[in-house]
Design a protein that fits this description.
mainly alpha; 4 helices; about 70 residues
């Protein structure tokens, strides 16, 4: 298991690569301000219309892209 510090650094790197620095910071700020519940959000919006296999395939694709 990764340490919290390693996880924070890796997560921020991913956010910056996907959103850019400004929007990554905005995203973090939104989560902190809104009493954000990631579990509820994920169930309601993130994977709403996807099967487990679709989620797995997307995760595998992303993983392979990131390790190259």
């Amino acid at each position: 298991m990764k340490t919290e510090e390693v996880l924070r650094v890796e997560a921020m790197d991913i956010l910056v690569k996907k959103l850019g620095l400004v929007d990554a910071e905005r995203f973090i700020d939104i989560i902190k301000k809104d009493n954000f519940n990631y579990t509820n959000w994920r169930k309601k919006y993130l994977w709403k219309d996807k099967t487990l296999n679709q989620i797995y395939e997307e995760a595998e694709e992303t993983y392979n892209e990131m390790k190259d």
